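Structural prep section.
Before we set up the soaks we want a predicted structure of the protein with zinc ion in place, mainly to decide which crystallisation condition to try first. Input record follows.
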Amino acid sequence: MECRACHAPIIKFFSLGQMPLVNLFLNKEEIINEKRFDLSVGFCHRCYLVQLINAVAPEKLFSDYIYFSSTSKFFLEHCKETAEQLTKKLKLNSKSLVLEIASNDGAQLQFFKNLGIEVLGIDPAKNIAEVANKKGIPTISEFFNYKFAKRLKEDKNIQADLIFGANVLAHVPEIVDFVKGIKIILKPNGTAVFEFPYLKGLLEKKFDTIYHEHVFYYSLIALKNLFKKANLEIYDVEITPMQGGSLKIFVSHPNNFRISANVKNLINKEIQDGFDKIETFKKMNEDVLNLKNELTLLLKKLKSEGKKIAAYSAPAKGNILLNYFNINENYLDFIVDKSEAKQGLCTPGTHLLVHPPKKINQDKPDYLLILCWNIADEIIKQLEDYHNAGGKFIIPIPDIKIV
Ligand SMILES: [Zn+2]
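Run finished without errors. Recording the tokens verbatim:
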């Protein structure tokens, strides 16, 4: 296998084996035909890009996507703050155009629109683009690539002051083609902002960000090389709490902005921490195995004491944890998720029927395993009554905690 950015060979350092597509929830009849695909991660010695060894075709993953971003309150607050921050930092006004790639149901763009800024969304999932358009967020249902960007610019004369993409940079296998598309539709003084899970998480036992949708696990040193291929420059970077630890990068045409100290400092830190060496990443094998042993031992012990355990929410990452740790009806009495689109369907690989959260009040489990551990605080606050009545929470990642 060769690097998707620079074509040097990539070397495998971690594998989850054969895994189901973790956003593909199933009817009972579909279970028998469920497919599994290899899920292994490798490292490129030449450009430092960490990536999947085998990718699944995006058409299989995103054409009828079930995830609606507007379901999390924490996420919506983050979107609002992002719109306010970027409008101020980039001095956007009523003449500006904000273009979002993988805009989902318009959760982010609505906050720019509320600030009086023109918006345009692009999202490959037809069902979700429809929802966005109905909400008044103009959205084109397409995969973003160089060809599409060229069409936008040449046929419709569209160039953006801000191109925004949250959790898209990690999803696109043809990544060099993608960044060349960004180059075309970015106005001469425009900025492209991307936010995505930071590679560092893999070294902090957050292995459950590895799933088929995430082709890339980015460090800043790898991104610098990547954007250079399209003659673009990263001029600022922030570390954010999204997804349990994300990077937000600011990209422009070269020499437009002063390169901030944040960029230089983080690059130095990554080199110091060995992000340019495969040995650094090999260490995650032992850490993840230890976590698996510790969590399954705990669940086994609780079961032997007759405790009732349920899982709270079924995000992609949660399904990776359940499948890789082999946690299914052997330990879990049931699973709940707020998303109505998931309720009544079975979880990928583990085939647990997804119930609405009200089942927690009805069945009163002793423990709730929080699979969306990155927003555990929010969940615990929401389930205050359950907690006050003696219910306990298990937070599995990065270190197992019972509260
Ligand atoms: Zn490479």
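Observations: The CA atoms of residues 299 and 305 lie 10 Å apart.
Flagged for discussion at group meeting.
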